Structures are given as structure tokens and as C-alpha cells.
Predict the 3D structure of the following.
Amino acid sequence: MTCAEPFVDIHCHLIPGIDDGSQSWEQSRAMAEMARADGVGTIVATPHQLGNYSHNHGRDVRNNTAELQRQLDQHAIDLQVLPGADVRIEDSMIERLRSGEVLTLADQGRHVLLELPHELYFPLEPVLQQLHRADMVGILSHPERNQGLLKQPRLIPQLIAAGCLMQVTCGSLMGTFGSPSQKMAEHLLEQGWVHFLASDAHGPNARRPLMKRAWERVAKRVGTDMADRLCCQNPARVVAGQDVAPKNHRKKTALLMSGWFRRQQAA
């Protein structure tokens, strides 16, 4: 099985030296070469913003992204790189998004990649409502890796109903982040509660910018149409600033919890 379209990666820490991702221009170019060889055609560079990375200003992210694109072109690496951010949720987030200090994905002013603390969950409905009033949409990064959501998986369909889209990390489907995250990622996928797969890559050696194996895993479990939607079509709509349907219609009984979800709740 092969994908007929280039992959679009909307979560990748490709900008060097400003967060816990790439640490040099050489590493960034190596990551870009690796991604292109794997079938990725476009990457949204998403350095952390807010939280511990409040020093990362949108202006600098844009400038660094443009410099990276220049270097890729100079080295004949056929990859499009666009500015974005992995945004830690804070009280001032909406105001900073409006001003452009904090970036939306592909700098389109539409989709915001939201990052929760890994160790806990707090209600996102107020944030989603604020984003909606600003004509923006929240995309929750790696819900399958959040400890709070692992303990309360019933919250996922409620968040989707509130307008939140879900981005699962490619490595989670491969077991990179442990069995609980893998099982939850698989279940979200089978229920139609995943809207995007993304690499969340941080370097050329560990947590690499690869998507093909995850596409293959999705294609095997739920079909090539869904794999293409999560790895190519939906993220391409984000890059274009277009709407993404909140429901994948994988199952008509999507709001019914499986036995696995019930066991997680009882644990």
C-alpha cells in the first residue's frame, strides 16, 4: 500500500535552537531530508509558545521559518515549510493569537494547536468557546498521551462535540510512547475520533519526522481512505485555512463507549 498524495505534517519542532526540538540548522536540514524521503511534502513548523517558551515571539518564528525555507531551497530539498506553533494554554492566549504574537497553524489565523500539560487535564470548553468567538478552531495535540485523558477517555467525544479537533502522534500508533497511549490511539482511530496524524518530531535521531509507517498502520486498520484523510487531506485543509469536518463518520455508534473505555474508567 502506498499513499497517492504527499503527507502534510502539522506538528513538527523543526525550527532550530528555540525549544526542545532541533538544535541546529544542520539538524533541521537533516530532519527535512528525512521527512521528504518519507513522503512528506509540507511541514508546519510548530515550536512551543507560551508556558516555558513565552520568549518565542511570532515574529521570530516567521523569520526563522523563512530562513529555513531558504536553506532547504538552496540545498535542493523539495519541502515546503510554514510557520505555526504548539501553544500552551494560558489566560492571555486568545489576545496574543489575535495580535499575531502567538501563531496559528500555517499562520492562517484559523487553527490553533493546543497543548495541555502532559500530566493533567483541565476543562477545555471555555477555551474552545473563546476560540470560536475569535473565528478560530482548537486542535488538541496528542490527546492519547495526556495522563488526565487516559484516565477519563469519555471526555474525548465531548470535546469533539464542543468543536475540538484531535491530532494523534504517529509514534503513538507504533508504541513509541507506551502501551496505554498506543491502545488509546488505536481506539480513537477506530471510533473516528482522530482528525490528524502528525509526527511531533523533535530531532533527526529520536522522535524523527516520519509518517509513512503510521499511514500504513491506519490503512491496515481502517482503510486507505481514512489514512489519506488523516495524513494528507485534513492537514492540507488546515494549511489552506479551510474547515475540517469534526466527524469522520467511522462509526454511527461513535458516542458509545467500548469495553476498553469502560475498563479505563473503572481502573
Residues 20 and 73 are 25 Å apart (CA to CA). Confidence is low (pLDDT under 50) at residues 251-258. The longest strand covers residues 7-12.
